[in-house]
Structures are given as C-alpha cells and as structure tokens.
Design brief:
The complex is a heterotrimer of chains A (584), B (162) and C (618). Chain A is of the alpha/beta class and 584 residues long. Chain A contains 19 helices and 19 strands. Chain A folds into three domains: 75 residues, Ubiquitin-like (UB roll) (Roll); 116 residues, Alpha-Beta Plaits (2-Layer Sandwich); 358 residues, Rossmann fold, CATH 3.40.50. Chain A is 34% helix and 14% strand. The longest helix of chain A has 22 residues. In chain B, helix 1 runs parallel beside helix 3. Chain B folds into two domains: 61 residues, Arc Repressor Mutant, subunit A; 81 residues, 3-Layer(aba) Sandwich (Glutaredoxin), CATH 3.40.30. In chain B, a hairpin with a 2-residue loop joins strand 3 and strand 4. In chain C, the strands form five sheets. Chain C has a five-stranded mixed β-sheet. The longest helix of chain C has 18 residues. In chain C, helix 9 runs antiparallel to helix 10, helix 19 runs antiparallel to helix 23 and helix 23 crosses helix 24. Chain C is globular and about 80 Å long. Chain C contains 26 helices and 17 strands. Chain C folds into five domains: 113 residues, Glutaredoxin (3-Layer(aba) Sandwich); 211 residues, Rossmann fold (3-Layer(aba) Sandwich); 84 residues, Ubiquitin-like (UB roll); 90 residues, de novo design (two linked rop proteins); 54 residues, Alpha-Beta Plaits. Classes of the chains: A alpha/beta (584), B alpha+beta (162), C alpha/beta (618). Chains in contact: A-B, A-C, B-C. The interface between B and C is large, with 43 and 54 residues.
Chain lengths: 584, 162, 618
Amino acid sequence: MEDMVTLTIDGKEVKVKKFTTVLQAAKQIGIDIPTLCYLKEINAVGDCRMCIVEIEGRRGYIPSCIQMVEEGMVVHTNTPELMEARKMMLDLILSNHPQDCLTCIRSGNCELQKLAIQFNMENIEYAGERIERKIDDLSPAIVRDPNKCVLCRRCISACKNVQGIGAIDCVNRGFESCVSTAENCSLNDVNCTFCGQCIKACPVGALHEKEEIDNVWEKLKDPDTVVIAQTAPAVRAGLGEEFGMPIGTSVTGKMVTSLKKLGFDKVFDTNTGADFTIMEEANEFVDRFTKNDNLPMITSCSPGWVKFIESNFPDLLSHLSSCKSPHQMFGAILKTYYAKQENIDPKKMYVVSVMPCTAKKFEKDRPEMEVDGIRDVDAVITTRELARMIKQANIDFVNLPNEEFDIPMGEATGAGAIFGTTGGVMEAALRTAQDTLTGENLDKIEFEDVRGGAGIKRATVNIAGKDIKVVVASGLGNARKILEQIANGEADYQFVEIMACPGGCIMGGGQPIKSSKIRSEVDIRKLRADALYSIDEKSTIRKSHENPILKKIYKDYLGKPGSELAEKLLHTSYTKRKKYNIDV
Amino acid sequence: MNETKCSQKIQDDFLKEIYKTYKPEKDNLIQILNEVQEHFGYIPKYTQLQLSGFLKMPMAEIFGVITFYSRFTLEPKGKYTISVCLGTACFVKGSQKILDRLKERLKIEPGQTTEDGMFSLDETRCVGACGLAPVFTVNGEVYGKATVQKLDQVLDELENKK
Amino acid sequence: MKTVEEIHKIREEKRKELDLRVNTSADTREKHILVCHGTGCTSSKSPKILENFKKIIKEKNIENVRVIKTGCFGLCAKGPIVIIRPEDTFYAMVNPEDCEEIIQTHIVEGKKVERLLCKDVDGKMVNRLDDLNFYKKQKRIALKNCGIINPENIDEYIAFDGYKAIEKVLKEMSQDEVIKVISDSGLRGRGGAGFPTGKKWELTKIVEGKQKYVVCNADEGDPGAFMDRSILEGDPHCVLEAMAIAGYAIGADKGYIYVRAEYPIAVQRLKIAIEQARNYGLLGKNIFDTDFSFDIEIRLGAGAFVCGEETALLESIEGKRGQPRLKPPFPAQRGLWGKPTLINNVETYANITKIILNGAEWYSAIGTEKSKGTKVFALGGNVNNIGLVEVPMGTTLREIVYDIGGGLPNGRDFKAAQTGGPSGGCIPKEHLDTPIDYESLKEIGSMMGSGGMIIMDDTKCMVNLARFYLEFTVSESCGKCTPCRIGTKRMLEILERLCDGKGTKEDLTKLDKLAHMIAKASVCGLGQCAPNPVISTMKYFKDEFEEHAIDKNCRTSECKAISKITIDPEKCKGCGLCQRSCPVNAIKGEGRDKRIIDQDKCIKCGTCLNNCPFKAIS
C-alpha cells in the first residue's frame, strides 16, 4: 500500500495510486472537472486553465491535469470563486474565437461549444481584438483554420510527440501565438504526412479534412456516370458513432444501405481490395523471403506511412512492398476487369473510396496511381464525410435495414476485414503466406501475438520449419524506431507491418472524432478493433487466397500474383521526397 | 552583410564554421541562431532548413523558437536600424514621442524596414543608459537625452548620406 | 595555471599597488585616472576619453599616471565620469576634448579643473566623490568593487580579496557549513520574490543526484533596471567566484550564466573573466589543489522577458521557446535537463563572497528584521540623480528619492514611485516613508522586484502608466496559458479605451475583476504579477481612473485623446518660447501677446509644456 496516496477532494477522502493527477483522482470518485487542452496520453500541459482547482496551502489556482496527488492534499474543485474564474477563462477563450458555430464543421461535436453551453455563456464580456489569420487549404488532405484555434496544443503534441513529425508547432509569442508550420507554409510544402491525427486531437474546428463531398454529389447527380463506392474495413467499425450508436458497433449493412440510398450505382467492399493486396503482398514476401532479398519487407497500405518513409528514410525505400494499397488496387481492378465485364466505359466510371483516412486523399492524387491514363480512384471521402452526406440526405441511419454489398465485387474474406486494425495486415498476410509456403491448407488462422494495442509488437512464426520474425508497429513515432533499427543494421526480422495511425486504420485521421472526455473513459481502439475481429470470426472464408472472386479474376484475367498484368495494375513505385518544399 | 539577402553559398560557408564549433544537439539552437542573426542580420530560410537537418529537429520547431525571441528576425534589416528605448525610465521621459515621430517620418511600424532598405525601426527595452533617458540608438550607437528636434537632425543627416 | 602561492603573492603585491584606489591618504606618487565604462558612460563616449587620456600621457611623457577603465560608478546622470585617485576628485560630464585640460591642470599643475567638478543638486561644487549626497546614505556590498577595479583584469579583483572566499570555503568549510553561513546571513533572492538563498541552496543540496547545475540568472528584463548589468560589467569575477562557492555547497561542477545578448559589454567582460579564471586555475579542475572542480559556460538569451522566470530560463538554456514549466517540481528537484539545479540572480551572487569573508553576523546586522543586507536599485525617471544606488534594507523611499536621488527636477511634485517593473506596483506619496524591504513593499501592493525604481512627477498619468506596463506584458507574454495570453491583452484593451476616452465605468469593474483572476490563474510569475501595476494604480489613483472613465479627462494631458493643452493667460508672459518650440506652428500670438494654442493644429506633443519658463501651459 506504500504506493497509495490519500487525499481529500471536495470533502471526500480518496485513496489513489501515486503519480495520479488530481484530475484522474477526482474522476475516480465521480467528480468531473472541465478540461479543454487536456487529452489523455497525448497532451497534459496545464495551459488552458479550465481544469483549475484550489489546493489548501497553495497560492493561486492549480491545473488539475498536471498536478500530481500528494499525501494529505486537500483539494476543492468547485468553489464559487473557481466557477467564476473558469467562466472568465472561457469568456477569454471565446473572445478570441469566431462566433460562427452554425456554419462550423464541428458544430455539435465541439468541446468548446459544449463548455459554452455548460457554463451558460450568454454573452462575451471581454470581447476584443482577434487576429485574422490565413486558412491553409492547399493540401489535398487537411485544412487548417488558425482563426478557430484555441491554442490547446493537442495537435502539436499528436504530431510531434506521438507521430514524431513536428509539421506544426507553436510560433510567435503572447497574444500573437498560433499553431503554424515552418515559415507559415502550407501543410502541402512541409513534412506533414497527412495522417490526420491532428484533426482527431483538435477540440474545435481549426483542423478538418479537405472535403470532397461536393464533387461526389455532382457525380451522383450525373446520369451518365457510374458512381461506385468502396468502403474500407475500418469505416463500418466507426460510422455508427456519428449517429449516436455505441463505439464498436459494426454497421456494415446499414452503411451499404445508406450508400445505395445516396445514389451510388454500386457499393463494393474494399476488403476485397485487401484480399488482392494480401495475394500480391504474400507472394512478394514469399519471393523475397526465399531469395533473402531486401528484408525485412515492409507493408505499404498506409499512405501516411509511405509519405513518411519517402521523405524521412528515402534510402530504405527498397524495403517497402511494391503493392498498392487495397483501395487503389481495387480501383484499378474496377476500372479494368470489372468495367470490361460490365461493359462500362472506364472514363465514365467514378470510384469513390470511403476511408478512415485523410492521407488516402493524398494517395489517390499520386501520379503513379493510374493505369493507362485512367485514375484508379476519383474521390476519397472520410468516414466523417460519409456521415455528413447521410445526414444531408436526411437518412435515418440508425433505423436502416441491412443490405449486402453488390456482387460479384463485394465478396470479401475475414482477412480483409482485419486490415483495419494494427496487426491485421500481418495476420492476413501470414494466413496466406503459410499456406503458400507449405502448399497446404492450414488450420491456424489466428495469430494472437500480433493483436492488441501495443505500439510495437513482435512475434516469431514457424512456417514450414522456418522461423519468420515479424514486427508490427503503429504510429509513426514507433515506425521511426523500426526504421532506425533497419538503417543501423539491427533488424533481425523479416516482415514488418506499419500503419501510420496509432492503433491502425480504425483510429485513422478520417474516423469519428471523440471528445477528450470519452477518450479518457473508453478504450476506443479496442472496441473498434473488436468489431473487426468479430466480423472476421463470423466470416466463412477467412483467408484471402480462398476468396472465390479473387480466384476467378486471377484465373480469368490477372494470371498469377505478381504476373505482368498484376504488376501493372496492382503495384506501384515510390519517390524519394524532400521533407520541405520551401522556397529558400 | 546586412543589406541584402545572402546567397546559399555564403550561408553554407558560414554554417560550415558553425558545425565546427557546435555539436549537433538541440540545446545549441539558440546559441547558433544568435550567431546567425549576428552574422547575417536575420535568419535566412535556407539556414533554417540546414539547421533542421544538422540538429535533427523539425523546421517548425526551429521556426517556433525564432519567432519566440524578439532578437531574431526573418527579414534582413535596413542599412540603419533605429531602436527607440521603451524602458520605463525612457518612457517616463517621453520616448513615446520619439517613436511616434519616427513612425511618422519613416512611415513604418516598429519591426519593419523602409522600402528602400535604408531604415529599420525597432522598440527595445532598456539599453541601460537610463541616465541619458530618453534614448534611441542607430546601429547600436546611443543618442541620449533625445528630443524630437534632435531626432529630426539625426534623420536628416542619415538621409543625406544616402 | 597559477599555484596557490602565486595567487597569494598576486593579492599581496597588487593590493599594495592599488591602495590608492581606496585610500585617499595612500603613500604613493602614482595617480590613477578611472574612466567609467558602464553602459551609460560608454554610450556617451567614455572609451574615447580613455583613449585620449592614454594618448596625451604618452605624448607628454608623463610618468606615474595610469588610466584605468572601470565599471559603473553609479551616478549615471553625471556621465561620462572620470575620477582621479588617490585624491578622489570627481569630474562629471566629461567630454573627450576635456582630457587635455584635465591632464594639464590636474596632473601636471596639481590644480582642480573647476568647471568639470561635479555639482551636487543644491548647486554646491563637490571635490570628492564621497562628499556627494548621492553616496552618503549608500552602503556598497554587491557593488563594492564597481568603479574601483578594472573588470578586465583578474589581478585587480584578486587584490581586493578576490578568490579568497572560495579558497576559504574549499579549505576550511564543509558544504553544510557554507549553507549555514548563507542561511544565517538572512540573504534572500534579489531577483524579485525574495526566497531565502540559504534555503534554496539547502534544497538543492539535499536532492540526490550525480549531476547538478548552478545557474546564474542574468536575464535582467525589467525595463529600466540595470543593476545586474552593472555588476557584470564592473565586477564579473565576484559572480564567477560565488557560483563556484554555490557549486561546492550543493555538489555541482558545472555552471551556466544566462545573460541577455542585448548586454554586449557584460557578455564580453564575462568572457574575459572566465578565460582569465581558467588560466589561473580558479575555474576548472582541482581548484586550489582540492578535489573540487567547477567550470562555467555562458548562454545568451535572445530577447524574451519571460526568460527571467527561472523555469522559462531553463527551457531557454535547453534551446527551446522560453515557456515556463509548472512548479513543483522546483528546479532544485528537476531543473536543467531534469537535473537538480540552483538558480540565483546576479545580485544575489554578488553578496556571497562578502558574506563568506565577513561572516553571517556581519551581514545580518544590516537591514531589517526579515530583509537583511542591502539592495541595489536602478533609480530613474523624474529624479535628479539618476543612477545605480545600493542601500541597506529598511531605508525609506523618501531617503532614496530626496537624499540620494536629490529630489525631482524642475521643482515638480513627487507623484509615485514604481518598483518591481512590470511585475510591481506604484507607491504613492502617502507611502514615501515606507521602509524598503520585501514585506513592506508587498503590503503596499508593490514588490521588491529586481530593483528598478522609477520616480514619477505630477505630470505623469497613472492610467497611461498602467497601460504602458500592460503593453509590455502583452508583448512579452509567452502565450502559454489563457489568462496571460488573452487576459492581459483584454486588460490592455480596456486601458487603451480609458486612455482614448472610450472607456466606461463598467470597464473599471471589469478590469479589476480580470486583474484579480489573472493574478491567481496564470502559470508563472510573469502572468501572476502582470496585473500588479494595474491593481496598485487603481488602488492609489482611483480618482484618476474614474476621471478617464466618466469625465473623459486626463489631468496630466498625457492621454492626448482626452486632453487639451492650454496656456493660462494669467501666467503667460508672452515670451514666445513655446511658439518657437512648437513643431507644428500651432501657437498664435506676436510680440508680447499672450499666446494661444490652436487646438485643431495642436498634436499634443507637449514640447511647449517643457519649454515654458512660467509653467503657464498645462
């Protein structure tokens, strides 16, 4: 019991572990202290001063998000004076924030707005100057509106401390302080990977994805265009949250129904694309493993990650699998094989990828992502954008019936589903690789060692008498550690899965944004991952190479994995990039 | 060296010397920036980019440090930098009038440089010559017990030197 | 490297040679011409004076005369200052062209150059420095060597007991004994808050840790304060020696001096001093042949007032934006690079060697019950003797302003004194007899601060002054926490409204409410103290605030938008001086006419106010 500390909060005695913050200790006894800049495991800096408390014997107000508990401490969290101070603090923050809630992308899901309601802000007492700042909407993925920034620095921390990028930081001083980039350039010209973790950290509307909704509506209206939707595995594990459904609800059927209601001509599953990726990637790995060529091989389905390695470790690009990511592969198949089958002019086909990801917006614009001048994918919308479209169309999502993906391209395996979580690509690849290497149909399906929320997971898998060492990393901070090992020749593993977002695509930059409060109370990653694992478990086919439509397409069209045509459609190349494109 | 933006070659040469003196550690950033500011009269973008590589830190963080400290500037200074002391002793003795007059005559705000690149205007906090308050400095040279008339005289002289 | 014996020998021989510096009846034929090289005098060309003296002496082949550059003498208002010793003759406002005459008349002919002799405020000619009222009530401990030694010559420092304290500490005292002496002396931090120095040392000492650091805070940011600068410029070694003593006491072998890059002279002299001390083995390995090693590095600041806050300073030494850290943990527990760190400011260190050599009792006998020793102030503003003064704690404000400062110029009335700079407050007339110590100043709403003391006469508007300080705080706020980043800006906006005649009575209430919230909710000292100038002026000059808010009137005419400059026809004698001084020709009248100001043309610059010999303009 030595590690326990007893303190009094609002007259209640509470016993908590040492190194607990006052904020956490209060939460344990059901006392909620308002916060704004605090974000569990990402940002605890005590800047916004909303979480201030009084501690007997200490001068002034103390931020509870960073103040550690001490033995015998007596804390007051809700004196009239504190409430007034917090209200003034909020008044000050609002005085420096635009009052355009009604047209703000975060209206209804804004932590500042919630506070304003909670504190019954009737007017702004300390109205004063606001500095007009330029909106950066030049990148294909992320829009930064510094006018709305409340300087909580959660985005900076997510970018710099979690992802290890540092594309944005605090610049200037005092009232002029703001979050910005090197030389105030566009995100497009700096080391941003477009992972979108900053968006998810932002409590207000200062960061959001570059919307493509209008383009999609435009095409949906056009009778001459065949508009096809494909949905990434992680989307179904998050979309329901946008309509108030519990975190971790799997909404595949309702999602398909809603897309059809929106007017998409066909709704397919990117999981099928994931199955293609596994076919190609497993084949590539088996080949490289047998030849001991450029090992470890690293997965390439996460476009933020790909941009990261291109600009941070360009010399290690040969380790990257040449496979396109699932939705790009799928787009290429749709515009070639499927278009021919259905007799559709690929130029009249418009493929919309619904993704949990902001970097996919950048990826689909990469010049390599086309076949014979036809772009693989035409638009990428995030889970949030899809939700907005559904709301715009006045669809009662929660009460929708379930529909199935269109066939034949909508058939997918459980292996494709788990692509959406960290470790999933590895597991899916191992399922196929083991059968390929042994030439058998093995019963082992689940690889527990690569599951779970750890940032870096290691496992050794024995296949056909050979030990294969694998590493799974999520979050670019962890990715960097792995790359440094490879660069230093310390890598003793052969296969690496990397996803740019911590926890994988289910926690992607395009997924529903959860407030700081929910993030402190719930393990969102686990709930969403469980949804995908349960889809996998319920699937009748759980290995990509057993997907009947894939078998058919390889047989009728592509030939073998790695064939010349497969290379042309499903593989890509990478570019050494400069971190900064700043005009010096 | 202060007058125009400097070439990458000049910056590279200077940075070579910097790399000899300083270890590639983040701690050295401010010390290095002080040397760069001193040498070039501003912190060129190219130098920021190079330092980002040398110190292995994001450029945004370097930019954050540069914009935090008032001594660092992003644009080259004019031929003559006129700083008006706004320390309390000078303020009490009327340095605001000196500053107002400068703004009026040079038609620039503190922190800016005239279009012809002749004058930069700055506010400083106490140059330590309180006995001579109010003071302003031209390229570091102190003019004490300043009045609007005295300032006009100095400006006239500098303008005639053009 | 010098051996211990060699150091002793230097001290003995040099002390004899320099006796004339401190002893007017020294038995010598030599004369030393001391030329002040503090920043103030340097700004008014004292280096040229030094050069001229040297040149003339060489030309004239004069023997037994040495010209020495020294640190600040204190009376900056009279600069450039030249003092000739041993007779202690004080020449004020010397021009480079005067050197010839001084050499000829004073040195060669043995007479005084009457016209250059310093005049006291009462107009009396003063022969010797010690006869000046300015110096009579002062007691120089921290500034002991300033103006006496050449700061760029380590031998001169050694001559006046330099590096004797560190030797004593290393050879005769345990770590705890050193800390006890400092504790018993009652010395408190001179940077502002007045934390007991001995306690700070002890707290740092007791923390376990292989690597500890000693830091000297020389980021003197208070506008209008130059105490620390003068010490560094005049006696840099005393800081180095004290840091080494602190290093020994807490168990650190490395020190950093964080000094403003805007102090080029101080930086230069520190560099020279460190180099010399290293060469003599007084910094480095095995100092005085003991196991103790200590070295010091300089880190330059880059212009951020907040870096005077100790945790922001640490961030800045680490190369980052100077944003403060939450305390606790205090630097004593987790400081530079997470290691236990002792931070004191320059003036605090400047007292250490004297306490070690003279004992705790000697020091604690000076000052008041809770505030021991002396305090250096940078006296400025509307006072005759602008300069650096060091007085025992407990000296009253009145003594400083009138006895030492020589009162206010132009016969103006005292209105307020501002201490503690942007973190301090205004002290009105009714508190002139307040003894200067930490507690008393706090009680009346100000603070000791680092030592800026600005005197204001009745032409100064207190609302405008509060605005001035808030403007400073807003531009120096680091921007980390909401109350300071946005709150001070909103305070400034209210003050600007008041000064522009656009304020309301409600603004006063709002201002007061906001000020008190910011004081309690800000992260660091800068934010917590930022409202002080407002709170104190609102307390003592409430009527002036109300005049601005309700009557839209500024009684001093400083707030141009709500003031008119008028000429009192009763007092106007028609001399026309105002008219000639007006830069915009706004004053009408000819010959002996009473003058009238054309309000449309008047830009309210106030030039005429200062030029009217009859005080007819207000």
